[in-house]
Amino acid sequence: MAILFILYFLVCLGVGYLGADRKMGFWGYLFFSLAFSPVVGLLLVLASDNKREVMKDKQLEEIQSSSEKVEKLIGAQSQFYSEKIEKLIESNYELREEVNKLIGVNTRLQEELDTARSAAGAKAEKVESPIESK
Fold this sequence. Notes:
Blueprint: H1 2-18, H2 25-35, H3 38-47, H4 51-133
């Protein structure tokens, strides 16, 4: 009877060893096998996922999630700065148009001033000419 108990315990240890890299680990599968049976424990080990694969999948999901977040952030910032640049370019065109209008107004005022000065000079000559004629 003691030999059967030792054999049972050794088989449970084997199931625990097989499950060391699985979800529940060595101790989980050992105690499960001791409580229910090594056969049920072995079936559970075979049906469970490998810890490393689960960790790789989790890490891959985290990396993909982080990558998506970064892409969204970059996209949002890119759109924000694109809109800002478009507004600056638009306001630059508006400023250029306004400056060109002011240059046009300044040119017309300069021409009117020159015309007024010419007219004033001509009147001054007429006013001086009677004095010169005396």
